[in-house]
Amino acid sequence: MIKLIQTEADLKDGLSLITNVFEKFQVPEYSPEGVTSFYRFIDKDFISKLISRNELELYGYYLNYQIVGVLGIKLPNHISLLFVDEQFHKKGIARALFEHVKN
């Protein structure tokens, strides 16, 4: 199931997923400055401000009430985040999130 992330608990879980996947797959490829910049962008307070100002929407892909994928749209139509839990790679979750926001 895909839905807009709206609760504090879901936001916390979504940001945790993003952080874990980023650290596993992206950090080795980023410069120290790039890592710092990314962490600033996914800071809970910063993301919350973007959401409250209707500048960003976060969608979660849920399996058994657990977020296993997150897609962020910087409004009106820029994908700024797309992360899927490592255990669920190659299962069509990123594609499903993309198709959901595309329609």
TrEMBL record:
PROSITE patterns per the UniProt record, alphabetical: GNAT
Q: Which GO terms describe its molecular function?
A: acyltransferase activity, transferring groups other than amino-acyl groups
Residue span(s) of domain N-acetyltransferase? 1-103
What range does the record give for the signal peptide? none
Q: Which SUPFAM superfamilies match?
A: Acyl-CoA N-acyltransferases (Nat)
Q: Name one Pfam family in it.
A: Acetyltransf_10
Query: In its UniProt entry, what is this protein called?
Result: N-acetyltransferase domain-containing protein
The organism is Enterococcus termitis
